[in-house]
UniProtKB/TrEMBL annotation:
Family the entry assigns: Belongs to the EROs family.
Subunit structure: May function both as a monomer and a homodimer.
Cellular component GO terms held in the UniProt record: endoplasmic reticulum membrane
Residues annotated as transmembrane: 98-120
Cross-referenced InterPro entries: Ero1 (IPR007266), ERO1-like_sf (IPR037192)
Protein name per UniProt: Uncharacterized protein
Subcellular location: Endoplasmic reticulum membrane
Amino acid sequence: MGLKVDLSNTACLNHFSQCFWFLFFRLLVKVALITGGASEIRDNIVFLFLIHGAKICIADVQDNLGKQVYDGVYPASSYLENDHPISRRVKMKGGKKVYWRMQWLWVLVALVAVFVAMAMSSKTSPRIALFGAIERACPCARFSGIVEDCCCDYETVDRLNGEVLNPSLQELVKTPFFGYFKVKLWCDCPFWPDDGMCRLRDCSVCECPESEFPETFKKPHRLSMNDLVCQEGKPQAAVDRTLDSKPFRGWPEIDNPWTNDDETNNDEVTYVNLQLNPERYTGYTGTSARRIWDAVYSENCPKYPSQELCQEEKILYKLISGLHSSISIHIAADYLLDEATNLWGQNLTSMYDRVLKYPDRVRNLYFTFLFVLRAVTKAADYLEQAEYDTGKPNEDLKTQSLIKHLLYHPKLQAACPVPFDEAKLWKGQGCEKCRLWGKLQVLRLGTALKILFSGDGQENSVQMLHLQRNEVIALMNLLNRISESVKFVHEMGPTAERIMEGHLSAHTTLIITWKKIWSYVLKN
Ligand SMILES: Cc1cc2nc3c(=O)[nH]c(=O)nc-3n(C[C@H](O)[C@H](O)[C@H](O)COP(=O)(O)OP(=O)(O)OC[C@H]3O[C@@H](n4cnc5c(N)ncnc54)[C@H](O)[C@@H]3O)c2cc1C
């Protein structure tokens, strides 16, 4: 049959998409797509439905040759009216009942096909149940086994994070001790002139009045020189020491040699309430923001991804990348969706485009989490004995008990006692290479590095570790931030991937399907 139908005819297509059954079938196809049906079956279902819709559409066009083309909605029920070609044809074979039976047959066939597709895909892909409930499988089937260079597997990390770490950390960062951070927000950029301006109001930091900042934080505690044991004639290197039986000796005001920031100059520092300054989308984008990341990567990992990189350099790269992933996840988790209405929410597309699409970035996030967790557990004795005094005794007791709960939780001890084995790295004295990190200006990671690579790597060393109050605050907040990112990836990652990958394959499928319809129509 040499039927010529112009499928680009908009009236036809309008009518096409308004057909009730076609929409219903399309819904079923969507379910098949979301559940990740095997591509062959999925294509055929789409093809089948579109052909059915096309037949109705063709019949309409045939029926209206020489008449005015339809305008507006043509409801499905009108197929059953007397003057409609299909219902007329159906009536000749027994009237409306036969027609309806035909439609139910279609529905039955469609449902069977969808369930077969779901069953076939269930072995290989994470699932969404038919009515929207997310089945909690592994975060992404791709991430299983031991986290590279670490001593725990992905499943354990997700479980421990969900059951122990994240809930405790969320509580901990709300306590007064961990809620305030002393920071020098303004300093000259050593790399290029920068006005530090960004587009959104949300970019600016909400500083807190000095009166709100705990009094105890303002009294400096200087270590006596007896506490400092010189190493290679550099007193600043002497603060890097492993732990002894009485680790905590008050909060010192000594600069961290692993970072460039000098927060000890009290004239220029401001106090921020971290709860009022969540890490989220700030509108800091474009070349300015990207330039910073470029500088961070090129300064610290100039040869990446060359094979010549030594283990230490690879670790440095993974830490930066993991931190970068965590920041990107937070931006996506709390995004300004509509500036006009000030609507905030999750942006799963951004999360997918910036992080999930690149499995290495997810792996680096998990790696950084375990690295920082190891720093925290290694400093357990120190952190347990530290004073969390903010002048609010009840709150401070709670802080102390939360710290103990976190550090000595039996599940953590049992499942992941040594999240990362730093003993395999930086065995030599001094480790000038590691001091590259000083350029990072990232106090948080700097603190983790300071704990992990203090002293000469001997577990029994009696030399001392001294942490600033600000460093401990930064460290626990960092652990919490990465814990949030890992949790978000675990909970929302599969949905984001399914939506994004579904979109991509839906577009591809549609193009292929239109081609099939076109050649089918031409042949018949
Ligand atoms: C320290 C720091 C903190 C920031 N905090 C915020 C914030 O709180 N809120 C906010 O809105 N913006 C923040 N920004 C800016 C934000 O990180 C992005 O730079 C900005 O949103 C622009 O993003 P982008 O998509 O252009 O790519 P960027 O995130 O700028 O990435 C630049 C390039 O780095 C590579 N890359 C990206 N991610 C990774 C990864 N995980 N591992 C390896 N390579 C990667 C890619 O090639 C990418 O094109 C921060 C930037 C920095 C440097």
